[in-house]
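Two records follow; treat each independently.
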Amino acid sequence: MNRMENEFLSLAVDEHGTLTELCNKKSGRELISPHGLLRMILGDPACLELEARPAGIPAIRVENNRLTLAYPEMECEQRGTIPVSVTLSATLREDEIRWGVDVNNRTADKVIREVHFPIFTIRDPEPPMAAITSELVSERIENLPRHIRSCFTSYMAPDQKYIRTAPAIYPGRSCSMNCFELDWGGDGFYFGCHDSSFELTAHLFELEQNTSLNMFLVRYPFLAPGKEWSEEKIVTSPYSGDWTVGARKYRKWADSWFTAPKIPQHVRNSAGWQRIILHHQYGEYFFPYSKLEQAYDDAAKAGIRTLFLFGWTAEGMDSGYPVYTPDPSQGGVDALKENIRKVQAKGGKIILYFNGQLIDADTDYYRSGEGQRVSIKRADGTEHREFYNFSNTGTFLRAFGNKTFVVACPSCRSWIEILKRHIDFAIEIGADSVFFDQLGLASYPCCDPAHGHPVPFTGLMQSKREMLRELYEYAKSRKPELGFGIECTTDQTLQYTDFVHIFGFPASAWNPEWRKTGEKPLLRSASYLFKEAFPEAVISNRNIRDDSDVEFPVNQMLLLGSRSDVEIHRCRSSIAATPRYQEYLGRANAFRERSADLLYRGRFCACEFHSLSNPEIQTNAFLLGNELGVLLTQSNRDVQKTEVSVPGFRFVRMDSVSGDVVFENTTVTIPRNGFALLVYRKE
């Protein structure tokens, strides 16, 4: 047995290179069951995906807290032994293991497409263990085995070999950070890829042949015959404490490349926005320019003082891009300016929408050849195309669509110049913020060699980050207080963003029947992990679209310190059409304004400084200087009580959204959907 250990952890492999032991020495938890550390996916002219594993007995060395396994060949399904040599390494540094891989592709015709490494079989994956990922901003999977068993692909993949969660791709293709955790409450396991070049990485859980439950990361070298590839960027760490330990570990690494943006006060202190579509793709008008003032008045009654303008053009929402023409039928640019000024005269703010990457194929820009030149190409040389099938009450448009889009590659200089002109226009008409849709989203890896990047372009999000940096700096040079926002939450774009319109629903639950059963809602897509790692981020909520469910999702927004994205009837109506939502959000925002400094500027700190006796109460906290704001809410029982412990702090005051929460001594009594703030000061 080949072994490394210190006071934090122990690791061992047998003579075959199988990982047989990974133990948290502090908690005594054995984390894994035996499994091989590596597999690869190769492609050749006859088959695009062939699985390969190390062949034979490796040469093993353990020296200076570094273990290496050297394999001269790989065993490939349907191809036998092939000349691909691999050296794996594990370096022990305090409570972390840094994993490395070196590959030499000596084949004549095989491309090493994927490297799955390191692969761990989770020893005891059943609850109370939970998986905390960065999907949908951040996701908590309370029952991992049950979740994986629900992931059959029917006939799209060989489920008899592996049942897998859908690949969670970082950055920007569902993952906001390049890490995930296993959480047992008092201890956990951190699994991250510390790659400041932001190459594509997949995070996967799988059930292998219905026996072992594995977790691993996937890297995509696309290593050609005769080439070598190596990296040492994957970090794992068993830890003691709650899930925030892993978030802080990731942030400590991120501080090597991340600098928090200087967010304008009108963005930092904003309760959110009302998102409205003025003119839709198929021609319907919802909010002509003359109705902007009324839309603002409706939103202001709910404490929302920003209008987010979609479809403000003659072309309509998701149409004509990258051309945005102020609508001449409504008076053109002068009428748009005039009605924006009316909103601003009342203290309102305006966000102006642009798409950061879509190109309408039915435009002169596309047909001229320039749109085709900058568009992302797929592996077969065809353009990557997208469709957004908006309709009214008919069926044909919904089924077959109206518009075809290609997607601009962020490496193309001419596309960046177009986006700069959009910034110029936003400033010209007096907008308070400019917004670029989809710029936090990972596009299809471009395969057009004429763009001057590798093929496939797995580093596309680094290029998008550089494009975003240039746009952000250009916007600030033109108008320092201009807010700058994008859609989709990824840490690597956050540095050049003042606010993020998220993708995901923070109030969704794994147990949707929780109201009937009285169970605590097991939130699926809350942003705790991301918010703990990047507390300075200004992110929105999403998906409150009518009056059917209001109090609970609004309370989740308050609990996370998010901003409201008001999108009534999918942006077709103002909040006046949902009086229940308008009234409750107004109360919630009035509550937040009473403690605005603490709740807008305070650092999200989860449960770092406080604890509750009742685990069914949802809670978080914000810290500003010596002042701590503890937030509490519950929605699954008629009434619940909890003791609140805040060592080293003294109680100052209490507030609640609806005036229905009672605080006596250290006990809080909260009715269904009640929401309270307890303010403490450090002694």
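The next record belongs to a different protein.
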Amino acid sequence: MSAKPLDNPSPSIERRLSDINFKALVENRHFYPSPASWSDEVLYFLLLDRFSDGTEYGGFSDSEGKPVTGQQEKRTTPLFNSQTDSCTTDRQAWFEAGKTWCGGTIAGLKEKLGYLGRLGVTAIWVSPVFRQVTGSHDYHGYGIQNFLDVDPHFGTRDELKDFVKAAHERGIRVILDIIINHAGDVFSYEGNQRYFYFQGESWPVSGYRLTSGEAGTIPFSEAPASFEIGAWPDGAIWPEELQSPDTWTRRGEIRQWDSFPEFLDGDFCSLKDINHGDAPRDPLVLQDMERRVTEFRVSPALRYLTDVYRFWIAFADIDGFRLDTVKHMEPGAVRFFATSIHEFAESIGKENFTIIGEITGGRSYATTILDTTGLDAALGIDDIPDKLEFLVKGWRSPGNPDTEEQEGYFDLFRNSILDSRRNHQWYSKHIVTMLDDHDQVGVNHKFRFCGDDARSIRLLPAALGLNLISAGVPCIYYGTEQAFNGADQRTDDNSYSDVFLRECMFGGKFGSFQSAGKHFFNEESNIYRFLQDLTRVRHENIALRRGRQYLRQVSESGLENDFYYPQPINGELHWVIGWSRIFAGSECLCAINTDTELDHTLWIIVDSVIHSGENCTMQCIFSTDERQLGSRTAVMPIYGSAVQINVPAAGFVVYR
């Protein structure tokens, strides 16, 4: 199941966009349709290099539900045993192994579709699959050298197409992680030296590189010069249309990440910035989105890249894109790209093709960019993961509807004066929420949810309950379903800290829990089975997917004057947080307990109109304590209407 040897691309790989017959790609084909609402989906994000190499056996079944055993061909990686396999490697050697390619493949991912489908995943977000700069360590996929080919570490274009087809046959959609802001380190500045952004200067270039770090001996000009020196397929940039010097801004690396226009025109570290077109560069125009969009003029390079991703939709039947580094692109460029892609997708029957933007720079900026550009959703990578994670751990406020401050997690999903939102549903349809991720932008020493403290793993079910059953489009980061605990424990160095977020599911030299040679596809693990049950309940109850959301007041006594929104005391909140999801006259009441030691029984407000009749009750349809399932609680005429429920320590419950 491992990738094919790293040889030259297939002769069928186009060198030029002009060689692609788009009409032939779409004629007489039935493309997989978009979902009615992406709010109904459960996303799963994985780094392809870190997910599966196809050699695992034990603990999981194939797509048909048959157990995968060690007797099968090429099965050499057994299931991880926490009692014997944790911390069995030298930490420094283990860490070094995580800095480069580990061996995950498209073929390995394809054979785990059963594992993901049984988990309840309905859409897989795959890290970039495109061909990386030859000889680089860009296992993450964000350093592209050929936008029209799959990196041979991962497999082939046909394997990608086959994987998407197999996913669709299981009812699972595929979102591809894409980049238009930059390419890999494909050319060398003069003298093969690092150049940095300085007052908008364009710096001299030696030439395109043959391989990673090479001095730049390929002429920095349009083809056919690149052919004459043998750049195909390992050197320069492809497709050929991108080889024009005008493709690049050539202004050196960004140092001031929030300085305009440096963060737009500079290189993303060593990754080379692409010129999307002309736009105003007067700092006074920074906040004038109308001018920045209307005065933007599209470059040929942006048109070429738009055609590149139209090709991938048609070739592989892709269902959505996750667009990288949106902050570092002009809004006009993003708008042009999103409009063009949406129109193409609609023309082949994908009426709700999604484009999810990675938009750093704050929630207010993200909402403005979404409104301006036509992106469908933003990743919740600003303060949303922080508020979600540390609310569950007892260090953040859940919010307070009695104030206008956006201090807590639930404040993000109600009317917001700060963000000028008029609709309480806005965030629920346009934000992707997740606990862990592969970057953790703005965090120096990075760690997964379970990596900071022994107490955290007990709270993981509550955190996943909050993530999947509160508003937004939920996303599970690979390994979280197996309680991965990657954490940077260093104090004097934070370089390569993101490596600790990217352990291998399939073992190798960089398995989670500081292990090697053992895989983690355990369908009997507690968290995996918890998520199975949770995604099923979510699927069966539309209110839990699309319902309006309200943080609820609680009370220990049930007295009329004793209801309140829980708030931290001396910075800590180890208590019950309850919220309702309401849809078309149906209410689901959800609650987590951030106290890891004690169960808590208390009263929680519910909707008095929905529960206006006599003898109303609510039934427990989900609980981390199975003994509660099916039990009923009476709706009492207290403070409007309220129910008394018990929430287990570090637990999560849903009543309907």
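Discussion point: The radius of gyration is 25 Å. How would you locate this feature using only the token line?
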